[in-house]
Amino acid sequence: MSGLALIASYPKSGNTWLRAFLASHLRGGQPIDLNGDLSRIKNLTGRSLQDKHAGLEHSDLTPDEVALLRPLTSRRIAQLQPGLYKTHDSNLVPLGAREPAIPADAIDRLVYIVRDPRDVAISMAHHFGWTPEDSVNQMADTTFRMGRSSTRLNMNVEQWVSSWSAHVESWLDAADLHLLPLRYEDLLADPLERFTELCRFLDLDDTRHAISRSLEASSFTALAAQEARTGFRERYPASTAPFFRKGGAGGWRGELPPGLAERVASAHNRVMARLAYR
Question: Which residues form the Sulfotransferase domain (predicted)?
Answer without folding.
Answer: 6-274
